Amino acid sequence: xxxxxxxxxxxxxxxxxxxxxxxxxxxxxxxxxxxxxxxxxxxxxxxxxxxxxxxxxxxxxxxxxxxxxxxxxxxxxxxxxxxxxxxxxxxxxxxxxxxxxxxxxxxxxxxxxxxxxxxxxxxxxxxxxxxxxxxxxxxxxxxxxxxxxxxxxxxxxxxxxxxxxxxxxxxxxxxxxxxxxxxxxxxxxxxxxxxxxxxxxxxxxxxxxxxxxxxxxxxxxxxxxxxxxxxxxxxxxxxxxxxxxxxxxxxxxxxxxxxxxxxxxxxxxxxxxxxxxx
Length: 278
Ligand code: APR
Description:
The protein has about 280 residues and is α/β, with parallel strands linked by helices. It has helices at about 5-25, 70-75, 80-90, 100-110, 125, 155-165, 190-195, 255-265, 270-275, and strands at about 30-35, 110-115, 135, 140-145, 175-180, 205-210, 230-235, 245-250. It is elongated and about 60 Å long.
């Protein structure tokens, strides 16, 4: 291999080498870490892609700073912008992507140790990945509580509120109700900290569809031990991915990347069949 070996030849060779490693070493402790990029092909915008990302499309909410829409201090003061956005993002009308199905396939084959997601769309659950395999580091829309008295708020009432765009108020104390999504300024779930060293036990790490721009999630790939391969499947190179000799970069669309990976593993038909019925 020399410096003028075309990238795609390098990638193909590398992902074939990872597929071989998985089969020959019977790799069964794969840790996957994902972000919004694995859900964009489902129709859910990511946050930072120029032009299409959520943060480029909040002008109509005239926020001082786009990230205020997920800021707990801003929400206490004015929850309307969040609920305007929640209407577009609320789970129920989206279908999991091929990338979600690839993760489910890793689990079905007994090769997934843990799946860490920053996404709040619950599409991993919808793809059939069992809850105990998933760490939702930034929470999700799966439940909601009052931000003042912490009382739980009924699912059917939040769904109605999100549809009408009104701000749901606590039945106990009239405080604002917020889905259990981790806002800027809030702590991540304890479950994240209890599991965040798991990449140290991994025999392969796969990072997909994330800019690795938000801590502490972005530190996860660094816990993967030296000498353990790390695969990045992403439109662009991010974080420290590619800095280690065992790193493999599959730059481009996530769905295309997991198909390439599945093909190298001999799992492509199974992946397509799984996606067909999702
Ligand atoms: N295929 C491959 N890569 C993609 C695709 C795609 N179809 N779509 C987007 N990407 C890439 C983008 O190029 C970018 O590198 O996915 C990444 C998405 O990055 P972000 O938009 O920053 O999303 P994410 O990394 O999940 O954001 C992290 O920021 O706003 C907070 O809490 C929020 O969880 C979120 C966190």
